[in-house]
Protein backbone atom coordinates (compact mmCIF):
# COMPACT_ATOMS: atom_id res chain seq x y z
CA UNK A 1 0.00 0.00 0.00
CA UNK A 2 1.31 3.46 -0.91
CA UNK A 3 1.79 5.63 2.15
CA UNK A 4 0.32 9.14 1.84
CA UNK A 5 3.32 11.18 2.99
CA UNK A 6 1.58 14.38 4.09
CA UNK A 7 1.92 15.30 7.72
CA UNK A 8 1.10 18.16 10.07
CA UNK A 9 3.43 18.56 13.05
CA UNK A 10 2.05 20.64 15.92
CA UNK A 11 4.69 22.50 17.94
CA UNK A 12 7.93 24.02 16.64
CA UNK A 13 10.23 23.28 19.54
CA UNK A 14 13.11 20.88 19.18
CA UNK A 15 10.75 17.85 19.20
CA UNK A 16 8.50 19.15 16.40
CA UNK A 17 11.46 20.47 14.40
CA UNK A 18 13.25 17.11 14.68
CA UNK A 19 10.12 15.24 13.51
CA UNK A 20 9.66 17.68 10.62
CA UNK A 21 13.32 17.28 9.66
CA UNK A 22 13.37 13.48 9.71
CA UNK A 23 10.09 13.20 7.83
CA UNK A 24 11.06 15.76 5.17
CA UNK A 25 14.39 13.96 4.77
CA UNK A 26 12.42 10.78 4.03
CA UNK A 27 10.32 12.45 1.36
CA UNK A 28 7.33 13.67 3.38
CA UNK A 29 5.59 17.02 2.87
CA UNK A 30 5.42 18.61 6.31
CA UNK A 31 3.45 21.56 7.66
CA UNK A 32 4.84 22.63 11.02
CA UNK A 33 2.37 24.69 13.07
CA UNK A 34 3.05 26.74 16.16
CA UNK A 35 0.91 29.17 18.09
CA UNK A 36 4.00 31.38 18.50
CA UNK A 37 5.35 33.56 15.72
CA UNK A 38 8.74 31.83 15.53
CA UNK A 39 10.13 28.38 16.41
CA UNK A 40 11.68 27.80 19.86
CA UNK A 41 9.14 29.96 21.68
CA UNK A 42 8.81 27.67 24.71
CA UNK A 43 11.19 25.21 26.46
CA UNK A 44 13.38 24.96 23.37
CA UNK A 45 14.13 28.66 23.79
CA UNK A 46 16.61 27.83 26.57
CA UNK A 47 19.67 29.83 25.46
CA UNK A 48 22.07 26.93 25.81
CA UNK A 49 21.71 23.33 26.93
CA UNK A 50 23.93 20.43 27.75
CA UNK A 51 24.20 17.21 25.75
CA UNK A 52 25.22 14.27 27.91
CA UNK A 53 24.28 10.71 28.77
CA UNK A 54 22.72 9.46 31.94
CA UNK A 55 25.47 7.23 33.34
CA UNK A 56 24.19 4.23 35.29
CA UNK A 57 26.27 1.13 36.11
CA UNK A 58 23.25 -1.10 35.37
CA UNK A 59 22.70 0.64 32.00
CA UNK A 60 19.06 1.49 32.65
CA UNK A 61 16.64 2.55 29.84
CA UNK A 62 17.41 6.27 30.24
CA UNK A 63 21.13 5.48 29.88
CA UNK A 64 20.58 3.47 26.71
CA UNK A 65 18.40 6.19 25.26
CA UNK A 66 20.64 9.14 26.15
CA UNK A 67 23.73 7.35 24.83
CA UNK A 68 22.08 6.80 21.43
CA UNK A 69 20.52 10.28 21.53
CA UNK A 70 23.85 11.96 22.22
CA UNK A 71 25.44 10.20 19.25
CA UNK A 72 22.61 11.24 16.92
CA UNK A 73 22.65 14.88 18.03
CA UNK A 74 26.43 15.27 17.97
CA UNK A 75 26.56 13.71 14.48
CA UNK A 76 23.95 16.25 13.30
CA UNK A 77 25.76 19.14 14.98
CA UNK A 78 29.09 18.16 13.39
CA UNK A 79 27.50 18.24 9.96
CA UNK A 80 25.17 21.24 10.20
CA UNK A 81 26.27 23.61 12.98
CA UNK A 82 29.27 25.83 13.57
CA UNK A 83 31.47 24.46 16.31
CA UNK A 84 32.42 27.07 18.90
CA UNK A 85 29.46 29.26 17.97
CA UNK A 86 26.33 27.06 17.83
CA UNK A 87 27.67 24.15 19.88
CA UNK A 88 30.88 22.91 21.41
CA UNK A 89 32.22 19.38 21.81
CA UNK A 90 33.74 20.54 25.07
CA UNK A 91 33.19 17.33 27.10
CA UNK A 92 31.20 17.13 30.32
CA UNK A 93 32.52 16.61 33.83
CA UNK A 94 29.85 14.78 35.81
CA UNK A 95 30.14 15.38 39.52
CA UNK A 96 28.96 12.49 41.70
CA UNK A 97 28.45 14.31 44.95
CA UNK A 98 27.59 12.26 48.01
CA UNK A 99 24.02 12.96 48.96
CA UNK A 100 22.59 12.06 52.34
CA UNK A 101 19.38 10.70 50.76
CA UNK A 102 21.03 8.26 48.34
CA UNK A 103 24.57 7.16 47.59
CA UNK A 104 25.54 6.50 44.00
CA UNK A 105 27.00 3.13 43.04
CA UNK A 106 30.76 3.42 42.42
CA UNK A 107 31.71 3.64 38.77
CA UNK A 108 34.19 1.07 37.41
CA UNK A 109 36.42 2.26 34.57
CA UNK A 110 34.73 0.55 31.54
CA UNK A 111 36.52 -2.23 29.65
CA UNK A 112 37.09 -1.80 25.93
CA UNK A 113 34.06 -3.96 25.05
CA UNK A 114 31.72 -2.07 27.41
CA UNK A 115 28.91 0.07 25.96
CA UNK A 116 30.26 2.86 28.17
CA UNK A 117 33.86 2.68 26.89
CA UNK A 118 33.86 5.77 24.67
CA UNK A 119 31.15 7.54 26.67
CA UNK A 120 31.99 7.65 30.37
CA UNK A 121 35.38 7.46 32.08
CA UNK A 122 36.65 8.30 35.53
CA UNK A 123 37.60 11.99 35.64
CA UNK A 124 41.35 12.65 35.46
CA UNK A 125 43.18 14.81 38.02
CA UNK A 126 43.89 17.50 35.35
CA UNK A 127 40.18 17.82 34.61
CA UNK A 128 39.33 18.14 38.29
CA UNK A 129 42.11 20.69 38.71
CA UNK A 130 40.75 22.78 35.83
CA UNK A 131 37.41 22.86 37.62
CA UNK A 132 39.11 23.91 40.85
CA UNK A 133 38.43 20.52 42.46
CA UNK A 134 40.63 18.13 44.37
CA UNK A 135 41.10 14.58 43.06
CA UNK A 136 41.12 13.17 46.58
CA UNK A 137 38.16 10.81 47.05
CA UNK A 138 36.71 11.95 43.76
CA UNK A 139 34.01 9.76 42.17
CA UNK A 140 33.51 12.22 39.34
CA UNK A 141 33.13 11.10 35.73
CA UNK A 142 34.21 12.44 32.39
CA UNK A 143 31.97 12.28 29.34
CA UNK A 144 34.29 12.96 26.38
CA UNK A 145 31.38 13.17 23.92
CA UNK A 146 29.40 15.60 26.08
CA UNK A 147 28.74 19.04 24.64
CA UNK A 148 26.78 22.25 24.91
CA UNK A 149 24.42 23.38 22.16
CA UNK A 150 22.22 26.37 21.33
CA UNK A 151 18.75 24.93 20.64
CA UNK A 152 17.77 27.83 18.38
CA UNK A 153 20.70 27.06 16.07
CA UNK A 154 19.81 23.36 16.16
CA UNK A 155 16.16 24.03 15.31
CA UNK A 156 17.04 26.44 12.49
CA UNK A 157 19.30 23.80 10.96
CA UNK A 158 16.62 21.12 11.37
CA UNK A 159 14.09 23.28 9.56
CA UNK A 160 16.23 24.22 6.56
CA UNK A 161 14.42 21.93 4.14
CA UNK A 162 12.09 23.09 1.34
CA UNK A 163 9.63 20.30 2.18
CA UNK A 164 8.91 21.85 5.58
CA UNK A 165 6.43 24.73 5.65
CA UNK A 166 6.54 26.56 8.98
CA UNK A 167 3.27 28.29 9.91
CA UNK A 168 3.70 30.53 12.95
CA UNK A 169 0.84 32.17 14.89
CA UNK A 170 -1.36 29.13 14.15
CA UNK A 171 -2.85 27.62 17.27
CA UNK A 172 -4.59 24.27 16.95
CA UNK A 173 -7.90 24.68 18.76
CA UNK A 174 -9.64 21.46 17.82
CA UNK A 175 -9.19 18.48 15.54
CA UNK A 176 -11.19 15.55 14.33
CA UNK A 177 -11.17 12.82 11.71
CA UNK A 178 -13.15 13.83 8.65
CA UNK A 179 -15.74 11.11 8.03
CA UNK A 180 -15.64 11.95 4.30
CA UNK A 181 -11.87 11.74 3.66
CA UNK A 182 -10.58 9.90 6.75
CA UNK A 183 -7.99 12.67 7.17
CA UNK A 184 -7.36 14.70 10.29
CA UNK A 185 -9.01 18.09 10.10
CA UNK A 186 -7.47 20.77 12.29
CA UNK A 187 -9.23 24.00 13.19
CA UNK A 188 -6.60 26.70 13.54
CA UNK A 189 -6.81 30.05 15.25
CA UNK A 190 -4.58 32.32 13.19
CA UNK A 191 -3.35 35.09 15.49
CA UNK A 192 -2.81 38.40 13.70
CA UNK A 193 -0.74 40.95 15.61
CA UNK A 194 -1.99 44.53 15.15
CA UNK A 195 0.73 47.10 15.95
CA UNK A 196 -0.08 49.08 19.14
CA UNK A 197 -3.48 47.42 19.45
CA UNK A 198 -2.81 43.86 20.58
CA UNK A 199 -4.02 41.20 18.21
CA UNK A 200 -6.95 39.84 16.32
CA UNK A 201 -7.54 36.42 14.82
CA UNK A 202 -9.14 34.52 11.97
CA UNK A 203 -9.85 30.81 11.64
CA UNK A 204 -8.49 28.37 9.10
CA UNK A 205 -8.54 24.63 8.49
CA UNK A 206 -5.65 22.33 7.62
CA UNK A 207 -5.99 18.64 6.81
CA UNK A 208 -3.56 15.74 6.55
CA UNK A 209 -3.69 11.96 6.99
CA UNK A 210 -0.91 12.08 9.60
CA UNK A 211 -0.42 14.40 12.56
CA UNK A 212 2.36 14.55 15.14
CA UNK A 213 1.67 16.28 18.45
CA UNK A 214 4.86 17.89 19.78
CA UNK A 215 3.40 20.47 22.10
CA UNK A 216 5.88 20.24 24.99
CA UNK A 217 4.56 21.27 28.39
CA UNK A 218 1.20 22.12 26.82
CA UNK A 219 0.66 18.46 25.89
CA UNK A 220 -1.56 17.61 28.90
CA UNK A 221 -3.85 20.57 28.04
CA UNK A 222 -3.75 19.61 24.38
CA UNK A 223 -4.78 16.04 25.14
CA UNK A 224 -7.56 17.19 27.49
CA UNK A 225 -8.93 20.19 25.64
CA UNK A 226 -8.31 19.47 21.97
CA UNK A 227 -8.62 15.68 21.88
CA UNK A 228 -10.72 15.08 25.04
CA UNK A 229 -8.25 12.39 26.09
CA UNK A 230 -6.54 11.82 29.47
CA UNK A 231 -3.11 13.38 29.98
CA UNK A 232 -1.21 10.10 30.59
CA UNK A 233 0.32 11.53 33.76
CA UNK A 234 2.41 14.06 31.85
CA UNK A 235 3.30 17.00 34.06
CA UNK A 236 5.13 20.33 33.89
CA UNK A 237 8.43 21.12 35.62
CA UNK A 238 9.29 24.82 35.67
CA UNK A 239 12.91 25.93 35.73
CA UNK A 240 15.02 29.07 35.91
CA UNK A 241 18.51 29.37 34.49
CA UNK A 242 20.82 32.07 35.90
CA UNK A 243 23.47 33.53 33.64
CA UNK A 244 25.96 36.32 33.23
CA UNK A 245 28.67 37.61 30.95
CA UNK A 246 32.28 36.59 31.58
CA UNK A 247 34.29 38.98 33.61
CA UNK A 248 37.58 39.22 31.64
CA UNK A 249 39.68 38.07 34.58
CA UNK A 250 37.49 35.05 35.40
CA UNK A 251 39.12 31.66 34.84
CA UNK A 252 36.16 29.38 34.15
CA UNK A 253 36.24 25.69 33.13
CA UNK A 254 36.44 25.13 29.38
CA UNK A 255 34.15 22.09 29.64
CA UNK A 256 30.58 21.78 30.91
CA UNK A 257 29.85 20.42 34.39
CA UNK A 258 26.71 18.68 35.68
CA UNK A 259 25.56 16.35 38.43
CA UNK A 260 24.01 18.79 40.89
CA UNK A 261 22.62 21.49 38.67
CA UNK A 262 24.95 22.37 35.83
CA UNK A 263 27.46 24.97 34.68
CA UNK A 264 28.52 25.96 31.17
CA UNK A 265 30.86 28.83 30.30
CA UNK A 266 32.62 30.25 27.23
CA UNK A 267 29.35 30.43 25.29
CA UNK A 268 29.50 33.20 22.67
CA UNK A 269 26.63 35.71 22.67
CA UNK A 270 26.25 39.04 20.85
CA UNK A 271 27.45 40.77 24.04
CA UNK A 272 30.49 38.57 24.64
CA UNK A 273 31.15 35.21 26.27
CA UNK A 274 28.56 34.04 28.79
CA UNK A 275 28.22 31.46 31.56
CA UNK A 276 25.01 29.67 32.52
CA UNK A 277 24.01 27.76 35.62
CA UNK A 278 20.93 26.07 37.01
CA UNK A 279 18.37 25.28 36.64
CA UNK A 280 15.69 25.12 39.28
CA UNK A 281 13.32 22.16 39.11
CA UNK A 282 9.80 23.02 40.24
CA UNK A 283 7.69 19.89 39.77
CA UNK A 284 4.05 20.37 38.74
CA UNK A 285 4.66 24.10 38.24
CA UNK A 286 4.34 25.99 35.00
CA UNK A 287 5.19 29.55 36.05
CA UNK A 288 7.50 31.65 33.87
CA UNK A 289 8.35 34.39 36.34
CA UNK A 290 12.01 34.98 37.25
CA UNK A 291 12.60 35.27 40.97
CA UNK A 292 15.49 36.24 43.24
CA UNK A 293 14.78 33.11 45.22
CA UNK A 294 15.48 30.94 42.18
CA UNK A 295 18.74 32.84 41.54
CA UNK A 296 19.73 32.23 45.18
CA UNK A 297 18.93 28.53 44.76
CA UNK A 298 21.08 28.33 41.62
CA UNK A 299 23.90 30.17 43.39
CA UNK A 300 23.76 27.76 46.33
CA UNK A 301 23.85 24.73 44.07
CA UNK A 302 26.75 26.17 42.10
CA UNK A 303 28.68 26.63 45.35
CA UNK A 304 28.21 22.88 45.99
CA UNK A 305 28.88 21.81 42.39
CA UNK A 306 31.92 24.01 41.77
CA UNK A 307 32.97 25.91 44.91
CA UNK A 308 35.94 27.64 43.24
CA UNK A 309 33.82 28.83 40.32
CA UNK A 310 31.14 30.10 42.71
CA UNK A 311 33.87 32.09 44.53
CA UNK A 312 35.16 33.50 41.24
CA UNK A 313 31.66 34.68 40.33
CA UNK A 314 30.77 35.93 43.82
CA UNK A 315 31.11 39.64 43.05
CA UNK A 316 28.90 39.21 39.96
CA UNK A 317 26.22 37.39 41.98
CA UNK A 318 26.35 40.17 44.58
CA UNK A 319 25.46 42.72 41.91
CA UNK A 320 21.96 41.59 40.89
CA UNK A 321 22.05 43.78 37.77
CA UNK A 322 24.72 41.43 36.36
CA UNK A 323 22.71 38.22 36.78
CA UNK A 324 20.19 37.47 34.06
CA UNK A 325 17.58 34.76 33.89
CA UNK A 326 15.75 32.53 31.50
CA UNK A 327 12.62 30.66 32.52
CA UNK A 328 10.92 27.73 30.84
CA UNK A 329 8.76 24.70 31.47
CA UNK A 330 9.70 21.09 30.69
CA UNK A 331 7.20 18.29 30.14
CA UNK A 332 7.90 15.04 32.00
CA UNK A 333 6.28 11.62 32.24
CA UNK A 334 5.88 9.40 35.27
CA UNK A 335 8.73 7.05 34.28
CA UNK A 336 10.94 10.02 33.22
CA UNK A 337 11.11 8.73 29.65
CA UNK A 338 9.76 10.45 26.54
CA UNK A 339 6.33 9.43 25.31
CA UNK A 340 6.27 8.78 21.60
CA UNK A 341 4.65 6.94 18.74
CA UNK A 342 1.00 6.33 17.89
CA UNK A 343 -1.52 7.59 20.44
CA UNK A 344 -3.96 4.79 19.78
CA UNK A 345 -3.64 3.02 16.43
CA UNK A 346 -7.22 1.69 16.45
CA UNK A 347 -9.20 4.66 17.74
CA UNK A 348 -6.98 7.49 16.50
CA UNK A 349 -5.21 6.21 13.37
CA UNK A 350 -2.59 8.55 11.93
CA UNK A 351 -2.15 10.43 15.18
CA UNK A 352 1.36 10.35 16.70
CA UNK A 353 3.11 12.11 19.52
CA UNK A 354 6.58 13.13 20.67
CA UNK A 355 6.51 14.68 24.10
CA UNK A 356 7.79 14.43 27.69
CA UNK A 357 11.42 15.01 26.74
CA UNK A 358 11.99 16.26 30.28
CA UNK A 359 15.37 17.84 31.00
CA UNK A 360 17.10 16.04 28.14
CA UNK A 361 15.13 17.13 25.09
CA UNK A 362 18.15 18.46 23.26
CA UNK A 363 19.96 15.15 23.66
CA UNK A 364 16.92 13.05 22.77
CA UNK A 365 14.77 14.86 20.19
CA UNK A 366 16.52 13.69 17.01
CA UNK A 367 16.71 10.04 18.05
CA UNK A 368 13.10 10.05 19.25
CA UNK A 369 11.96 11.73 16.02
CA UNK A 370 13.58 8.87 14.08
CA UNK A 371 11.53 6.41 16.11
CA UNK A 372 8.33 8.40 15.49
CA UNK A 373 9.05 8.44 11.73
CA UNK A 374 9.85 4.70 11.77
CA UNK A 375 6.53 3.99 13.46
CA UNK A 376 4.70 6.19 10.93
CA UNK A 377 6.33 4.30 8.06
CA UNK A 378 5.91 0.86 9.61
CA UNK A 379 9.69 0.33 9.89
CA UNK A 380 11.04 -1.38 13.03
CA UNK A 381 12.93 1.25 15.07
CA UNK A 382 16.55 0.49 16.02
CA UNK A 383 15.82 0.46 19.77
CA UNK A 384 15.10 -2.47 22.04
CA UNK A 385 11.49 -3.66 22.45
CA UNK A 386 11.73 -2.97 26.18
CA UNK A 387 12.78 0.63 25.60
CA UNK A 388 10.07 1.21 23.00
CA UNK A 389 7.48 -0.23 25.38
CA UNK A 390 8.66 2.03 28.20
CA UNK A 391 8.17 5.04 25.92
CA UNK A 392 4.87 4.14 24.29
CA UNK A 393 1.84 6.40 24.69
CA UNK A 394 -0.67 4.87 27.04
CA UNK A 395 -4.20 6.06 26.43
CA UNK A 396 -6.81 3.77 27.96
CA UNK A 397 -8.25 1.46 25.31
CA UNK A 398 -11.82 2.43 24.38
C1 LIG B 1 15.21 25.56 32.44
C2 LIG B 1 15.42 24.47 31.45
C3 LIG B 1 16.71 23.99 31.20
C4 LIG B 1 16.90 22.93 30.30
N1 LIG B 1 18.17 22.47 30.04
C5 LIG B 1 18.36 21.46 29.17
C6 LIG B 1 19.64 20.95 28.89
O1 LIG B 1 20.66 21.43 29.42
N2 LIG B 1 19.76 19.90 28.04
C7 LIG B 1 18.68 19.33 27.43
O2 LIG B 1 18.82 18.38 26.65
N3 LIG B 1 17.43 19.80 27.66
C8 LIG B 1 17.27 20.83 28.53
N4 LIG B 1 16.01 21.29 28.79
C9 LIG B 1 14.88 20.55 28.23
C10 LIG B 1 14.57 20.95 26.80
O3 LIG B 1 14.59 22.35 26.69
C11 LIG B 1 13.19 20.38 26.48
O4 LIG B 1 13.15 18.98 26.72
C12 LIG B 1 12.85 20.60 24.99
O5 LIG B 1 13.09 21.93 24.61
C13 LIG B 1 11.38 20.25 24.78
O6 LIG B 1 11.10 20.49 23.45
P1 LIG B 1 9.61 20.32 22.89
O7 LIG B 1 9.71 20.60 21.44
O8 LIG B 1 9.06 19.03 23.37
O9 LIG B 1 8.76 21.44 23.64
P2 LIG B 1 8.73 23.02 23.48
O10 LIG B 1 10.05 23.57 23.12
O11 LIG B 1 8.09 23.54 24.71
O12 LIG B 1 7.79 23.25 22.21
C14 LIG B 1 6.41 23.04 22.22
C15 LIG B 1 5.82 24.00 21.19
O13 LIG B 1 4.44 23.65 21.01
C16 LIG B 1 3.73 24.83 20.74
N5 LIG B 1 2.30 24.56 21.01
C17 LIG B 1 1.74 24.11 22.15
N6 LIG B 1 0.40 23.98 22.02
C18 LIG B 1 0.11 24.33 20.73
C19 LIG B 1 -1.11 24.41 19.98
N7 LIG B 1 -2.30 24.09 20.51
N8 LIG B 1 -1.05 24.85 18.69
C20 LIG B 1 0.15 25.19 18.13
N9 LIG B 1 1.32 25.15 18.80
C21 LIG B 1 1.30 24.72 20.08
C22 LIG B 1 4.35 25.84 21.70
O14 LIG B 1 4.10 27.18 21.29
C23 LIG B 1 5.82 25.45 21.63
O15 LIG B 1 6.55 26.23 20.70
C24 LIG B 1 15.80 22.36 29.65
C25 LIG B 1 14.51 22.87 29.88
C26 LIG B 1 14.32 23.91 30.76
C27 LIG B 1 12.94 24.45 30.97
Task: List the keywords.
globular; binds flavin-adenine dinucleotide; 398 residues; alpha+beta; FAD/NAD(P)-binding domain; 9-stranded mixed sheet; D-Amino Acid Oxidase, Chain A, domain 2; 2 domains
Q: Count up the domains.
A: 2
CATH architecture of the largest domain: 3-Layer(bba) Sandwich
Per DSSP E runs of 2 or more residues, the count of β-strands stands at 21
- Unreliable stretches covering 5 or more consecutive residues: none
What is the CATH class of the largest domain?
Alpha Beta
Bound molecules: flavin-adenine dinucleotide
Secondary-structure content class: alpha+beta
Q: Count helical runs.
A: 10
| Shape estimate | globular
Instruction: Quote the CATH topology of the largest domain.
Output: FAD/NAD(P)-binding domain
Question: Any overview of this molecule?
Answer:
There is one protein chain. By secondary structure, the chain is α+β, with helices and mostly antiparallel strands. It folds into 2 domains: 178 residues, 3-Layer(bba) Sandwich (FAD/NAD(P)-binding domain), CATH 3.50.50.60; 161 residues, 2-Layer Sandwich (D-Amino Acid Oxidase, Chain A, domain 2). The chain has 10 helices and 21 strands. Strands 5, 6, 7, 14, 15, 16, 17, 18 and 19 form a 9-stranded mixed β-sheet that branches. Strand 1, helix 1 and strand 2 form a beta-alpha-beta unit. Helix 1 crosses helix 9. The mean pLDDT is 94. The structure holds flavin-adenine dinucleotide (FAD).
Amino acid sequence: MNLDKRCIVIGAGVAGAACAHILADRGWQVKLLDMAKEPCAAASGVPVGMLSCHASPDDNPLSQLTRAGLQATVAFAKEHLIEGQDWSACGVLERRLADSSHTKKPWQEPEQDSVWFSHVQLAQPEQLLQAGLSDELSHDLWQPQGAWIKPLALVRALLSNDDILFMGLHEVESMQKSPATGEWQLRLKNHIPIPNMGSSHTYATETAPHVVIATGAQTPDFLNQVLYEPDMGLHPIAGQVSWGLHDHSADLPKFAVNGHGSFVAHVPTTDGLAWYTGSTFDRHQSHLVATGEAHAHNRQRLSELLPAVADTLASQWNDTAQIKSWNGVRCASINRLPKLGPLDEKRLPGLHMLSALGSRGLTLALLCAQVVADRMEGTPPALSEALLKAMQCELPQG
